[in-house]
Target: GntR family transcriptional regulator
Amino acid sequence: ELAGPLAKEDPTPLYLQLQRVLRDAIAERHVEAKGAIPTERELANDFDVSRITVRKAVDGLVGEGLLTRRRGAGTFVTDTRVEKIFSKLSSFSEDMISRGRRPSSSWVSRAGGAVTPEEALSLGLSPGSLVYRFQRIRYADDVSMALEYSTIPGYCLPSVDVVEHSLYDALERHGHRPVRALQRLRAVAFSAEQAEQLGIEAGQPGLFIERRGFLADGRAAEFTQSYYRGDAYDVVAELNAP
Ligand code: 16G
Model:
């Protein structure tokens, strides 16, 4: 499916057009993670451009970390999957930093309000209690990884503004980081709206993970629904014999 021709009448330089084709092919997984892309000569042939153009396009993607050159072997799609350890009560930010990736988030919304009946049941709160709701798109090195919707009981934080980057950092600073959690995982397909937020195609597979976190005194500290990109995560767990 990786074939030209590029639009020669388009004012966009050919190497940038080729970069876009390669980038889309990688994002849409036409070329698999760790898989090799065609050789310089093949690309030049397929797209009817010079090898210099191909080299320039590939150089750019290597510079961005999307492709990796291996001497004598070829050029490969960089493997960016993350192994998510399923037995550690870690945060997204910690998971990324421990793998040398840079975590960031963009806010969809952040507000306080009265608990809904469903939230009250999930968190064991009395009707009418205050909760804070955080909706974020999460990135690793600017690549979208997950959507997260968190509901935090009002007694855990003084206000919504104290969460800037890491929710767990904010909870820890205020003495309310969860020490225990229950989690469940389910396979889902991303809705059109979610896919748009993540910059992927609707219907792509995702991991839906629901976490209820608790404080040492047994009170709830978080109810978070996470939608992790299925193509970005491997779930890893350590098992002990019964
Ligand atoms: C993880 C947690 C989520 C928690 C978030 C805090 C899973 C499945 N979920 O994504 O429950 O709210 O980390 O991350 O691991 P932060 O401290 O970087 O905001």
Remarks:
- The longest strand covers residues 103-114.
- The chain has a mean pLDDT of 92.
- The helical segments are 14-27, 40-47, 51-63, 92-97, 117-123, 167-173, 192-198.
- Residues 14-27 form the longest helix (14 residues).
